[in-house]
Amino acid sequence: MYLNYFGLNDNPFSIAPNPDYLYMSPRHKEALAHLTFGLRESGGFVMLTGEVGTGKTTVSRKLLQQLPDNTQVAMILNPTLSALELLATVCDELGLAYNSDKASLKYFTDLILSKLAENHQAGINTVLMVDEAQHLLPEVLEQLRLLTNLETNREKLLKVVLIGQPELQQLLKRNELRQLAQRITARYHLLPLTAPEVSAYIAHRLSVAEGDISIFSKSTLRAVHQITGGIPRVINLLCDRALTLSFTKQHAVVQKPIFLAAAEQILGEDVVSQRVQSQRKWYLVSAFFVAVVCGYGVGSLYV
After folding, report:
1. Main-chain dihedrals φ then ψ at residue 106, nearest 5 degrees
2. Pick the CATH number of 26-190 from 3.40.980.10, 2.40.50.140, 3.10.620.30, 3.40.50.300
3. Within 10 Å of residue 219's Cβ, how many Cβ atoms?
4. What residue stretch is flagged as signal peptide (predicted)?
């Protein structure tokens, strides 16, 4: 709708995972480095956590791109499975044929362990990536741990990447999962973008679509960080709506009032009002402390 008006050749804020728009902030790069290091270690698990929309999928996709060619990856995208269902899914992902009539934990485990040994002999690394891992049942996580028992003198034959929301951290603190927690060789919690990173993120996406960050005023960019909390997915939603509103009102630059109106349409007036008020309180508190410090400094001259 607004592409031609703003001189864009594509929608810069689509929430569809388009690799052309991949933006790796310093913290995304740090997360990737932690996971990459962890997979090179001898342990069986690495873990990435973060709130919804912080970019865990971005990091995991980049991780997959960087894995060596001699790597077979099994993906679990629906973790609400029983232990038996999970093992069957792993077999499917590894291309293993099986007899459903013989289905049992031991039957599937033996098939998978045999495949891991076969891959190792052929010089192939095996990685299992589990998304939304906070939904895994404790008994399913324990079954994953048992799969990582197969090892050489140097390393585990299966490396598991757990990706999930912060609840995953709490789940792994349970006493019955302490053995699994001890096998995590790298863990990283992905935080939201900072204010400068939000501006860089928006500039990057606009640049890919042959646009320029100047279509957002500086006060709008500050408001984007304030209202979205630095969550990339929310940034995309609100910036897309703000561009649409600016187009309908024939504004060449997205101003702060337009952005706040867009935010209210998507998040609701109460949420936006609450975040604006909290930011104002923060400014007032900061100004108070600055005044106190300055006053103390001036007063000390007369002591």
Report:
1. -65, -40
2. 3.40.50.300
3. 12
4. none
Matching residue, tokens 């069957």? 88
Fold topology of 193-283: Helicase, Ruva Protein; domain 3 (1.10.8)
What tens-digit pLDDT sequence spans the chain (303 residues)? 899 999 999 999 998 888 889 899 999 999 999 999 999 877 789 999 999 999 998 899 899 999 999 999 999 998 899 999 999 999 999 999 999 999 999 999 999 999 999 999 999 999 999 999 999 999 999 999 999 998 887 788 999 999 999 999 999 999 999 999 999 999 999 999 999 999 999 999 999 999 999 999 999 999 999 999 999 999 999 999 999 999 999 999 999 999 999 999 999 988 888 888 766 554 444 444 544 555 555 555 455
Strand partners, 76: 130
C-alpha–C-alpha distance, residues 181 and 167, integer Å: 14
